[in-house]
């Protein structure tokens, strides 16, 4: 199943909330940070793809 941009953003919000609540250990915070960084890269890729499609469509219009 491919997650949408919105689903990835929601996961990022949850990760941020967990890190900010202060209840996670340093080790867990680092793991969450790594997951968040990976999600950010995935979101950037999705946005770049959307931008490319928009550029292509506007050239063809």
Structural overview:
This protein has 61 residues and is mostly helical. Helices cover 84% and strands 0% of the residues. It is built from 2 helices and no strands. The chain starts with a helix and ends with a helix.
End-to-end Cα distance, whole Å, is: 32 Å
Question: Please, what is the average pLDDT?
Answer: 94
Strand content: under 5%
Quaternary structure annotation: single chain
Radius of gyration: 16 Å
Task: Give helix and strand order, one letter per element, not per position.
Answer: HH
Shape: elongated
Biggest β-sheet strands, sense, barrel? none
Work out the helix count.
2
Structural class: mainly alpha
**Helicity range of the residues?**
over 70%
Unreliable segments of 5+ consecutive residues? none
Count of beta strands: 0
